[in-house]
Design goal:
It is a single chain. The protein is mostly helical. It contains 9 helices and no strands.
């Protein structure tokens, strides 16, 4: 076994990466391309993979935060999660579903499916409304990332891709 990525197929690897908070679709598409997947396939798997956590997050975040805040051990974590999510929600309360769409659609750090799902759950958005806004925003973010991946020929450091030990900066210099 050469690396962690050898444990799974390329498709499963991309799907799992897309489900991770902070990385989501924004990191999974370039990783899929770096693993040798066609761009369209990497996009589709990343898109659907990043949407998998939405329903559990929307339903579970409010009860989890409430339970954590009642516990002496988990109080700080619950308070931090609530503050972090609601800090980004001031404008969202004003624009509702369009605000949630925009929050997810702009591919910058701190926005995305996980943040949008947590905010939607904490603000009590209906699941159908939250899911449609998040899915549409994720589609726009995914198209932006896919376009950038294609145009910039982004290649990420992935240990299992013919270049073990080569760092991202070296690869960018070669572009």
């Amino acid at each position: 076994m050469d690396s962690f990525f050898d444990l799974f197929s390329r498709e499963v690897t991309v799907l799992l990466i897309a489900m991770l908070p902070a990385v989501e679709l924004r990191g999974a598409v370039p990783v899929g391309v770096a693993l040798g997947m066609p761009l369209g396939e990497a996009f589709l798997i990343s898109y659907f993979g990043s949407l998998l956590p939405v329903v559990p997050l929307v339903y579970m975040i409010r009860p989890l935060v409430k339970a954590a805040k009642r516990s002496r051990r988990w109080y700080r974590l619950g308070r931090w999660l609530e503050r972090r999510s609601l800090r980004r929600s001031q404008r969202l309360r004003q624009y509702k579903t369009f605000g949630l769409f925009l929050l997810v659609a702009i591919p910058i750090p701190g926005t995305g499916v996980w943040t949008g799902s947590m905010i939607a759950g904490l603000l009590g958005f209906p699941l159908r409304t939250a899911l449609s806004s998040i899915a549409a925003g994720n589609l726009v973010a995914g198209l932006i990332i896919t376009f950038l991946t294609k145009q910039l020929n982004i290649q990420l450091f992935v240990a299992s891709v013919d270049r073990p030990g080569e760092c991202l900066y070296d690869m960018i210099d070669k572009l």
